[in-house]
Design goal:
The chain is built from 3 helices and 4 strands; from the N terminus they run H-H-H-E-E-E-E. With about 130 residues, the protein is an alpha+beta fold. The protein has a 4-stranded antiparallel β-sheet.
Length: about 130
């Protein structure tokens, strides 16, 4: 009696894994972009109307090519971010959540992409 339940759970896990791989297939199509996205986001992004200034990309949940030209690729990235602001002025507030941004890459030879910009609020920008 327990075997069908175990098999059903294992199958559900495999289906979930396959769906996740499909949602992030762009990352394998263009090797190296995940680290570029993470580094650029961590160095520049703010969240929640600039109240979360020191955010870190935790996971990339979905990716999709939004637009492609002969010279550029724009990839929509849905991600989970988090931050813990230890400053007294913010009361040690923790920021976390999901968001989507568009990352623009210049195309090089082969499938090599070079990240040039990201949408959304960023440090060093107002409004």
């Amino acid at each position: 009696m327990r075997k069908p339940a175990i098999i059903a759970l294992a199958f559900a896990g495999l289906v979930g894994c396959a769906a996740y791989k499909k949602e992030t297939a762009t990352l394998t199509t263009y090797p190296g972009i995940a680290s570029q996205i993470e580094q650029y986001y961590n160095a520049n992004a703010t969240e929640d109307d600039w109240t979360c200034n020191e955010v870190q990309l935790d996971t990339i949940d979905k990716t999709k090519v939004a637009r492609q030209t002969p010279n550029q690729v724009v990839i929509a990235v849905t991600y989970y971010f988090n931050s813990f602001d230890e400053s007294l002025s913010h009361g040690g507030a923790q920021c976390q959540g999901f968001n989507t941004r568009f990352f623009t890459f210049d195309k090089g030879t082969g499938n090599q992409l070079s990240l040039v910009s990201m949408t959304g609020p960023q440090r060093g920008q107002n409004g």
